[in-house]
User: Fold these one by one.
Assistant:
Number 1:
Amino acid sequence: MENLIEIKNLTKKYGDLKAVDNISLSVEEGQLFGLLGPNGSGKTTMIKLMTGQLKPTEGNINVMGTDVLAHSVEVRELVGIIPEQETPPSFLTAEEYLHFVANIRKLDEIEARCNKWFDLLDFRNEKEVLCKDLSRGTRQKIMFAQAFIHEPKLAFIDEPLINLDPVIQKKVKDYLAEFVKNKGTIFLSTHVLQIAEEICTKIGIIYKGNIIHEGSIKELQEKNQHLEDFFLKLVKEKNK
C-alpha cells in the first residue's frame, strides 16, 4: 500500500510554545488512522498543517503525492475536511450550501449527490432551513456531507461524532468502515477513546506536541489491553 500521508520532522511554534514538536509519521492507503490526545495536545494543529490551513515552522508534509506547503489549495481540492468547530454559512439553507460546495468542486449530478446525503444522514426535512436556524447536530451532518460529496480518496476529520445522536453516530461509523473497506483513507483526531477503539485501524497518541505512541488497535487487542487503560497509563508516565 502506498502512503497517502507522509510527515517528516514537522514542527509548529507559537512563540516559545511548540504545539507540534518534530513529528514524523505516515498513513497508508486504506487506513483509518486516529490521532488521540488530551485537549491542547496538538491534534487540531496537526490537521490544519496537513491541509495547508497553517504553515509549519519546520518540516515537510506530503499528502497524496503533493507537497502541502507548496500546493495547499490543490491538496484541499483533493481531500475532504471536517473541522472541529467550523459551521456552514448562516445565510444559506442546507441545500444551498451543499449545492454551493458541489458547484465549487465542479461536480456533476449535483441533485443526486445532495439527496444521497440528505437521506443517509436523515435531514431531508431540514434541507430548506437556513443554517443559522439548524441544530448543532444537523449542522454537523452538513459538514460531514460537504466533506464527502466529491467522493475523495482521503478525508481529515476533527472529532467525527461531535453533536450527533446515537442513531446518526451509528450511520456515520458504518459509512466510515465501508469507506475504508473500499480503499478510502481517513485521518481523524479525537479525545474520545471509545470511538477510536471501535473504528480505528491504527492510532497515534500525541501529548504536548509529541507522538508518544504509534501502533495498531489489533496489537493492543492481542495483548488484551484496552485503549483507555493504555492511554491513561502512558500519559500519566509522560506527565511525571
Note: The radius of gyration is 18 Å.
Number 2:
Amino acid sequence: MNNAGYVALTRQSGLMREMQVIAHNIANANTTGFRREGVVFSEFVRGLERAEPSLSMALGNTRQTSLLQGALERTGGTFDLAIKGAGFFMVDTPRGERLTRAGVFTPNAAGDVVNMDGHRLLDVGGAPIFVPPDAGSIAVARDGTVSADGRPLAQIGLHAPADPIDLRREAGGLFHAERGTVPVDGAHVVQGFLEASNVEPMIEIARMIAVQRAYEQGQRFLEREDERQRNVIQTLGR
C-alpha cells in the first residue's frame, strides 16, 4: 500500500474510534454522574528520503473527559449527593481509590456509606464514612460535613485529578487519576440531589452525523485510490 493509503487508513481508524466514543456518550445520556468523552486527534509527521515531501498521519488515540457541570436533579434521598462545582467523590475499591460524580450512596449493614457497587465513600482524610445504625436525622452540609442528630460524624472529601487530562475511565462511573489527586476548594455538596449526565444528546447526534460523513468520504477516497492503482497495473501489464 502506498503512502496515501496509509494516511487514509489512520484517519479512518481515528474516525471509527470517535464514532464509538460518541455512541457510548449517547447510550449514557441518562446515566447519573456520567462525563462526556471526546477523541483528541494528533498529527504524526515523518521525513522521507531524498527530496520527497514529509509524510503526515492523523492519530486519534487520546480520549478527553469533559468536566462540565451536569444538571442537578432533586430526589429527596438522604444519601443522594451531588457536587456543585469542580471535583469528585472518592471511593475505596479493590483496585484502589477511584473518583466518581455519581452520588448514589447508602449505608451498608456495617454502617459504612457505600455506592451502588459497594465501594465505600471516603472522607477528607481518606477514611471510610461511618453512620451509626441507630442514627436518626442525617444531614449533609455544603462543606460535606455529615451529621447525625446534629452531631458531626465526618466530612466528605472532594478531590480532583492533579492533571486534568489524566483521568482514565473505568466501569461503574469510576475514574482513575494515575498522577494522583488534589483537594478541591470552592465546590460544595448538595444533599437530596443527583447530578445528571453532562451529555447533550442533540449535540452528540450532530457530531455522529458529521463523523459518519467524514468516514464515508474517506472510504470513497480509498475506493478511488484502489481503482486508480488497478488501472495503472492493468495499463503497465499490457
Note: The first strand starts at residue 37 and ends at 46.
Number 3:
Amino acid sequence: MLNTLHPWLQQDWERLHGYILQQRIPQALLVSGNAGLGKLALAKQFAYALLCSNPQQAGFSCGECQSCLLLKADTHPDYIVIKPAESKKTIAVEQIRSLINQLSLKPQFENYRVVIINPADSLTNNSANAFLKCLEEPNERTVIILITDRPGKLPATIVSRCQKISINKPDKALVISWLQQQAVNDDPEILFSLAQGAPLQAQDFAKSGHVKLRNDCFKSWLAVAKQQTHPVLIAEEWQKLPEGPLLFWITSWVVDLIKCAYDKATDLYNPDLIKSLQELAQQLNLKKLYKLYDLLLLNRQLLDTQINKQLMFEDILIQWQALNRGTHHG
C-alpha cells in the first residue's frame, strides 16, 4: 500500500492529514505543481486514507481492511479515476456525464467516495461545463481531487470552488540526496538540472537513458555549428525524438551560451558541457543568439498545436548554423 511518502511531500501530507483529523474534508481539492513532483501519489495517499476503515497513526491507510484490499485489487466501487481515454488527449463530456450518474447514487461503503481527475487541464470546454455541476451541487460524502501541472488552463469557475494545494519544487540538496539513495547511474546534479528540479522526472530520466540522448543531440548541435553536417539531416533525426525534452535542451544550451557570453558561467543548466559552451560563446553574435532564443520560446508555445516538427527543427538548426557561419574556417 502507499505508506511511504516522498520526503519532499511531508508538509503537504501533514496538511491533508490535518483535514482528516479536524474532519474538515474539502469537497473539492485542486493539487497543482510541476510535472514529476508526485502529485498523483499524494492524491492517492489522501484518497486511500479517506477510504480506509482503520487508518494508522500518521494517517496512512492500513492496507489490510476490506477497503484497502479492494483498492489493491483496483476494484473499490467508491474510488473513481477519470482520465483521457487511451490514445485521446482530452476527457470527453460523455465521461463526465457518466460520472454525474454514478455520483447520483449513494457511496457503497460507510466512508467517503473519492473521484480523481487527472490531468484536470484535459477537460474540454464542454466537459468542464458539465463537471461544474458536480462542484455546484456536491454529493454526500464525496471528495473530488483535481490534479494538474497547468492550473492556468482550468476555468476560473472550477478553480474558485476548490481548496488548493500547490506543491513546490523541493530543495536541491534534498533531491540530490534522494536521487543518490535511488542509486541512479547518471550524475544527480545533471539529472536535477535537466528535470528542472522535479525528482520523479529526474529518476525517470535516469532509467530511460535521457542524459545519453541529450549528449548525442548536443554532439549533433555542435556539428551543425561547425558546418560539419546539414541542418536538414539533423532535423530529420530529431523529429523522431520526443520534442518537449529536446526543445527544452536546445533552449537550455542557448540560455547557457548567453550566460557564458556574459562570463556568468555559474548556475548553468548544463554544467557538464561548459567547455564546449564557452568555446562557442566566444564567437557568437549575442543579438542573433537572442533572436534564436525568441524562436525557441515561440516554438515551445506551439508544441500543443499541429506544428510540423521536422520544419520546426529545420528552422531552428538553419538559424543556428547561420549564427555560427564565419566563425569557423575550414
Note: Residues 243-261 form the longest helix (19 residues).
